[in-house]
Amino acid sequence: MSDEKKSKIEARSPRGLADRDAAELAATGRMIDVIRSVYELYGFEALETPAIEYTDALGKFLPDQDRPNEGVFSFQDDDEQWLSLRYDLTAPLARYVAQNFDRLPKPFRSYRFGNVYRNEKPGPGRFRQFMQFDADTVGAASPAADAEICMMAADTLERLGIPRGDYVIKINSRKVLDGVMKAIGLEGDENAGRRLTVLRAIDKMDRLGPEGVRLLLGPGRKDESGDFTKGAGLADDAVATILSFTLGGQYKDGEPRFGLFELLGRSNVGAEGAEELLEIEDLVRDAGFGPDRIRIDPSIVRGLEYYTGPVFEADLTFETKDEKGHPVRFGSVGGGGRYDGLIGRFRSESTPATGFSIGVSRLYAALKLVGSPVVSAVTRLGPVVVLALDRDHIADYQRMVAALRNAGVSAELYLGSSGMKAQMKYADKRNSPAVVIQGSDERAKGEVQIKDLIEGARASAAISTNEEWKSARPAQFSAPESELVGEIKALLARQG
């Protein structure tokens, strides 16, 4: 192997990051348009925050860490300040509200979308960069704000093409979970780490099932790759209480509500959370959202530490198959909750807030599998291609392209060095609706040849011999060069 070959860099994408082609970008754009339209229908307005924040503003790290890169990508600027790529879109919103508090209307209703970044081990369905679309209400303490967020999430999924019955918005409360923690003796700052381990274990119920969660609540669990996750180390009776709460308390409409108060051991904070949940449930029912769309589910946790009250999760309930025929259940494609203490990190008084985030990248994959019209493959025509058959007349070809563009027609001049056959193949790959051909004969006559590639493809399917092809010259015709724009616009109109 030569030294030159050895020095070549391997073309590879970093793990957990992906390229996106034009078709996916167009489909994602349509998704964003639909989500935006629903959010604006509910009265939310657009906001954009930077992808980089000061690390301490993200609220995730201890101040004595030398390099705060656990979970986020961090670096130091020339002032030796730690900066991080945003982990989500909520912490930057909290910073923005605190920074602009006096001039913002309260409640402040905003939506934001963009990429977020996680410095975590990538895996199936887990990426280091992915897009989220958030909506938040800041300055409203009423459970009505939480109920509205849940209703908006349900409406958004249906507008995106998820049929009713194939999704559910599940709600729970961190206050309820705090009541359960108190019931098993895990209250107090000294148990903060174990509480977080317990919450993360409950959050994996859908993926790991009761047995996997039982191991994470107890001694720990080894996954399929052999990696071991340390458990919370709870006693058997505490594990049984947690599992009883998360599995035995499923709410079913028309039956008595689950025994929250009994399970919480009459905990004040737990009872308060239960009352808020039941109020949210009453509000969404009064608005016409039945239990097939929004319901209480005590297994919902949400992994982030800053939630303080109701938490929500958008769960896709249908099962489909991937490209290899394997069954796939997407589960959660979004979630959120109330975070009344997050903005208070920047201000002397607490500010109530609640919000919801859609995982756009994950939901895109689900919509693609169910054939949602929002993301289904739509044949997007490329530009009209003007072939460059005579290199001495590039300026003439460029004038044709400019005339088409000035008339609002997407057009390009072939800028490669290949001959006519290769140029035609190029136009096919560009999904061009038509090509414009002018050789010396056409130029002498003041004409161009226009080839309708879409009609030509249809006609060629019925032609079996070269002789038929030459005599038919399907969908190709001559036109005066002066009429090029009108003929192309008429052709595009015929194509619809």
From TrEMBL:
Keyword Signal: no
Residue positions binding L-histidine: 88-90, 118, 132, 136, 302, 306-307
SUPFAM superfamilies, sorted: Class II aaRS ABD-related, Class II aaRS and biotin synthetases
Ligase in keyword set: yes
HAMAP family noted in UniProt: His_tRNA_synth
Family, per entry: Belongs to the class-II aminoacyl-tRNA synthetase family.
Protein name, per record: Histidine--tRNA ligase
GO terms under cellular component: cytoplasm
Reactions performed catalytically: tRNA(His) + L-histidine + ATP = L-histidyl-tRNA(His) + AMP + diphosphate + H(+)
Keywords noted in UniProt: Aminoacyl-tRNA synthetase, ATP-binding, Cytoplasm, Ligase, Nucleotide-binding, Protein biosynthesis
E.C. code: 6.1.1.21
Compartment(s) where it occurs, according to its Swiss-Prot or TrEMBL record: Cytoplasm
Subunit details: Homodimer.
Aminoacyl-transfer RNA synthetases class-II family profile domain location: 30-383
Organism: Methylosinus sporium
GO biological process, one term: histidyl-tRNA aminoacylation
InterPro entries per record: aa-tRNA-synth_II (IPR006195), aa-tRNA-synth_II/BPL/LPL (IPR045864), Anticodon-bd (IPR004154), Anticodon-bd_dom_sf (IPR036621), His-tRNA-ligase (IPR015807), HisRS-like_core (IPR041715), HisRS/HisZ (IPR004516), HisRS_anticodon (IPR033656)
Annotated GO MF terms: ATP binding; histidine-tRNA ligase activity
